[in-house]
Design brief:
Layout: H1 7-27, E1 32-36, E2 51-59, E3 62-70, E4 76-84, E5 90-91, E6 93-94, E7 101-108, E8 111-118, E9 121-130, E10 136-144, E11 150-161
Antiparallel strand pairs: 1-2, 1-11, 2-3, 3-4, 4-6, 5-7, 7-8, 8-9, 9-10, 10-11
């Protein structure tokens, strides 16, 4: 093979390398600190929280998610979990009245799906989609709450900070 004949092969190899290096960054588009925009969010029970902050940290396929909420009645909730995107149930720590385990899977570079369970029974499935500009994450929660009432919430979060920023 002459050197000139290798150019198309070299282009393919370089393109594959560029894509493989970019995928981890795309896959982690949800990392950072996110604050709930209550005014843009919709809650099926008409009782939105006063505030919610999500902190998602990690690298590769494993993330740690921490949720801090002030409920409509003023009570506080602090809970979280650490998981890979492997659909395996992991224990939730803290005080989440609607779930004791969570599992997560990646649908696309900008979309994840988290399944919450209480005593082994699915309560809600949350689909999180990060906007193209990375500044907004919309989480649609479908299922039931701890009392068995239907849940259909659309929560709009705005990025407060990214990993490594101050």
């Amino acid at each position: 093979m002459q050197p000139r004949d290798r150019r198309p092969l070299l282009r393919v190899v370089v393109a594959c390398l560029v894509v493989s290096l970019a995928l981890p960054a795309l896959a982690q588009s949800n990392l950072g600190t996110w604050t709930l925009n209550v005014a843009k969010s919709k809650y099926s029970n008409n009782n939105p929280p006063k505030s919610t902050t999500l902190t998602i940290e990690g690298s590769g396929n494993v993330t740690t998610t921490t949720v801090d909420t002030v409920a409509g009645d003023g009570s506080s909730q602090h809970w979280g979990w650490r998981s890979a995107y492997d659909q395996r149930d992991v224990r939730i720590t803290g005080n989440n009245p609607n779930a004791d385990t969570a599992s997560r899977r990646r649908v696309s570079p900008s979309t994840t799906e988290t399944t919450f369970k209480k005593a082994g029974k699915v309560t809600t499935i949350n689909t999180a989609v990060v906007s193209e500009d990375g500044k907004t994450m919309t989480i649609t929660a479908k299922g039931t709450d701890a009392e068995g009432k239907p849940v259909l919430n659309v929560q709009v979060f705005e990025k407060k900070s990214s990993p490594g920023s101050r």
